[in-house]
Amino acid sequence: MIKIYTQLERGQNWLEKYRRKLPHFVCVLGFTETGLIEGISAAGATPEDRKYTAIADAEFLANGVKPNPQYPLPPLHIGASPVLISRAVIETLNIPLWLFDAGLPHPPSVPAIALGGQPAKCISTGKALPLSIVKNLLDRGLFWGEKLTRQIPSSYLIIGECVVGGTTTALSVLTGLGFAARGKTNSSHPSCNHEQKWAIAQQGLNTISLSQKSDPLKLVAAVGDPMQIVVAGMAISASRQCGVLLAGGTQMLAVYALLEAIANLHSLPYRSDRIVVGTTRWVAEDATGDTVGLAEAIANVPLLATQLDFTYSHFENLRAYERGYVKEGVGAGGCAIAAHLRENWHNDRLVTEIDAIANRLLITDN
Questions:
Q1: pLDDT tens column, 318-336
Q2: 120: β partners
Q3: Are 77 and 45 in contact (CB under 8 A)?
Q4: Helix 83-93 and helix 347-365: axis angle, to 10°?
Q5: What is the pLDDT of residues 228-253, one digit of tens each?
Q6: Over the Cα atoms of the chain, what is R_g?
Q7: How many degrees, rounded to 5, is the angle at CA 286 between CA 280 and CA 290?
Q8: Where do the domains of the chain lie, and which CATH numbers do they carry?
Q9: Is 59 exposed, middle or buried (0-12, 13-18, 19+ CB in 10 A)?
């Protein structure tokens, strides 16, 4: 149920080391105005919906299915939010949950640790975040990565994210770091909107200097988002004591490349052998992107993916994943990997638990 796509030996060693362990799940919430561009993302049917996607996902992660949520999950044109996958796993396995606000336009409706960030401007401006904010977010990420690992020194952190438009900011950061990422990223659309993403990323990158591109913190300040720098810091410090599963596709590959650049430039010690990227097979095998090629270009990162399959789900909105809709988000792939590792869940069990959440949500909504 877990396939290793790159760095096979390191990936297998990581899986063996953390088998049967109970992880903690961290979800870092952020926002970029890039996500409001028409057609850029399917994580919310309209730009207005997408302003609240991360806040609604956080509420659902924390509370599960409840009547009259303050922020209901935003409607999608097709498909269901990946937060159903994550919630099904953390609820059933009783995985401790940590929510962090790296920069949201509105405060979350559930308890979340505020990190002193702010929403990012559209990356096309080349002025996404003040550099002072980026430096502070890195410091807070380093602090919390170390603090969280004191509770699980022999286990691992799953670090997920929710940033609408985040695959576009990932493209811009990867490109700025020197990786040939064009045409390799993913999206929540069934066919990735590469040209739209590339045009926006290039617009921002063309406004910045070579010196900005050579400094990863300045690069994030120009064309990144607040989640990226927090997760990079968390992963660096957490890896010194425990395992780290960066739960996502394109966005977490960008974070891995970013943390390497930050650690190398600022001489920050970290353990690369304790860090993997974990996603879904819908991302890893997306024919409209090249996730595996991107991971290979970054070179050192093991890419893992749950083989979760919704073909026989009772819900059409979940079966839509098999047609390329949604694919990943809110740490869904990482949580599914944790279920396979912790309890040896096979596909039938995982789909049953996710269907149960979807069914309760349908009943409550009606």
A1: 999 999 999 999 999 999 9
A2: 32
A3: yes
A4: 110
A5: 999 999 999 999 999 999 999 999 99
A6: 18
A7: 105
A8: 2-361 (3.40.50.10210)
A9: buried
State the pLDDT at residue 366.
65
Where is 70: in which H helix or E strand? Answer: none
The four Cα atoms 350, 355, 361, 364 give a dihedral, to 10 degrees, of -130
Q: 3-class SS at 359?
A: helix
- Rounded CA gap, 279 and 266, in Å? 29
Residue type, 203: Q
DSSP designation for 89 = H
Q: Determine the Cα–Cα distance for residues 209 and 151; give it in Å rounded to an integer.
A: 42
Written as one letter, the residue type at 226 is P
User: Rounded to an integer, what distance in angstroms lies between the CA atom of residue 268 and that of residue 141?
Assistant: 13
pLDDT at 46 (0 to 100) = 84
Cross-strand pairs, 276: 245
Cα–Cα nearest to 27, from 168, 227, 291: 227
- pTM (two decimals): 0.97
Could you read off the pLDDT of 55-111 as tens digits, one per residue?
999 999 999 999 999 999 988 889 999 999 999 999 999 999 999 999 999 999 999
Helices (runs of H) and strands (runs of E) counted in the chain: 16, 8
What is the side-by-side strand order in the sheet with 275-280?
2-4, 303-306, 275-280, 243-247, 156-162, 24-30, 97-103, 113-114
Kindly report the length of the chain: 366
Average pLDDT over residues 270-277: 97
The three-class DSSP label of residue 296 is helix
Longest dimension (CA), the chain: 55
Task: Give per-residue burial for 341-365: e unless 16+ CB within 10 Å, then b.
Answer: bbeebebeebbebbbbbbeebeeee
